[in-house]
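Today's session is about reading a structure prediction critically. Students often jump straight to the picture, but the first step is always the sequence itself: look for stretches that repeat, for charged clusters, for runs of hydrophobic residues. Only then move on to the predicted structure, which in these notes is written as discrete structure tokens rather than atom positions. Here is the chain we will use throughout the hour.
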Amino acid sequence: MPDQSIPEARTVEAPPGEAVSENASPREGISRRRLLGTAGATGLVLGAAGGAVGYASAPAGATPLTSLGEVMAMFHGKHQPGITEGLQARGHLVAFDLAAGASRKEAAALLRRWSTTAQRLMAGEAAAQDDTDVARDAGPSSLTITFGFGNSFFSRTGLEKQRPVSLDPLPDFSSDHLDKARSNGDLWVQIGADDALVAFHALRTIQKDAGSAAKVRWQMNGFNRTPGATAHKMTARNLMGQLDGTRNPKPAESDFDKRIFVPATGSTDPAWMANGSYAVVRRIRMLLDDWEKLSTGAQENVIGRRKSNGAALSGGGETTAMDLEKTDAKGALVVPINAHARIARPDQNGGAAMLRRPFSYHDGIAADGTPDAGLLFVCWQADPLRGFVTVQRKLDRGDALSTYIRHEASGLFAVPGGAAEGEYVGQRLLEG
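Below is the predicted structure for this chain, in token form.
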């Protein structure tokens, strides 16, 4: 995150008893809505006796909350949005099943509608028809909308010959406790934004756009830390308090595209998947009551990394290479043999790698009094068999973390490449 200068403190005056207008132009002065929205991060002070409103300067290096709404992701491009962008504060994952009798024609019309909606909403514009005004006051807020196809979509639309082999159902794992009603689906939509109302507005509009062509199969809602909540950019934490995603592949790495995206040429995948990716979606419940009974040291041995800064137990900082052979004074491995970070390493899995881009979730308290909370795990890879499946099989055979998590829902979706100007997502499949 670039360093930012500390803004000069200023005030906005209003006559006694009158509020500062919400309709004031940003060029004329900060609006009352923005002042109130900045309260949590910048120490908003409301004068008790008069109409003066002031705010303290933001911490150095933090992103002012007033800038969050201005960030815009691009709809058109080589890849769909929502894959390489940073984690967003709010997210919705939703799967649809095509309605009985819906054909390839209805599916194409639906993807055309959805693409038009995504392009408008990601630009901070209202929906083309019957906009609900939920996001009227906000900017784009880093909104991304991503579309994918499930295995069952191809038989429903008569496109079996275009179904990628990579979309074959995931194998069973011993840690699975899957709810079929909340797994898979004909179509999948991922929505992310840095504002909760912007994300909800997109979700509601996408659901309305489905019309009679498709119905919701399942929906999951998640969140991450809001950008700017920390003094500097850092790896996100999950609900176990651990840094999550330390070894994520980086776009700057020379083999990033090879690992994450289907190549445009030389692939065994059908041509319509060029520059696309495969998303594995897992609802992973964290057994937090059990986890939180462990000491910090015991938690660190389960993961293989320090809870404070994500550094490997073998020493160094977060990005220091893990020394798998290092032992303590008694000759025991410093990073336990069943530590999650050891088992999941690419070099322990034939180079298998995936781009993790999850959301945390909390769906209240279960009937037994435990929190229904955990991770909406979303990972991206060019080949799910060589990515997620390879790593999960290894984890399934002895990961210390498996005692404290439960996989409760699952899905695999083929996410085509981005739409070019004048195209809709999936057009090369549906009109090829």
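Discussion point for the tutorial: The CA atoms of residues 79 and 101 lie 31 Å apart.
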